[in-house]
Amino acid sequence: MGNRIIVNMGRQFGSGGRTVASMIGEKLGIEVYDNELILKAAERSGVKPEFFRHNDEKKRFFTLGYSQNAINDEGLFKIQSDTIRGIAENGSAVFVGRAADYVLRDMKCLDVFVCAPFEWRRNLVAERSGLSPDDAAKLIQKKDKSRESWYNFFTFGNWGVASNYDLCVDSSILGLEGTADFIIEFARRAGLL
Q: Mean pLDDT over all residues of the chain?
């Protein structure tokens, strides 16, 4: 593929968005950046990867335990944003979360939001995590609230609102692989592939 392809994937927790992103990356032969992005940001900044993992997509102020230095939400967001931009400027990529749609708003990208009905997400999370349906429901609410708060704080926008994306898709309708295929077909029809 001669063209650079950038897909930014927002997702509700339990919608299968990360899995859909992985399928898209595999089908198109391009890298998917989710937790890997955190490691790249850590490498660039000199901060331990564990620090990024612990504070990923959460809003707070933190102190680095091994020194007197501190990094706040804005500092962490800037490191991740610079990493996203550097990757996107150098080739094709699928970015999962981390407000990549906002960070790359001035680039030609496909911005997608994957959602699904709450009951479907609860069942998927319970099955994959071995949680009871009640515990899965609590986890979904907690994760979605955290993602929404984090996204809205840094983008001054509204997480999950259709007008922020080129495509919003309910993964429960076509299933995860069908959703990945649908997104790829949408990208083709939109002239991005």
A: 87
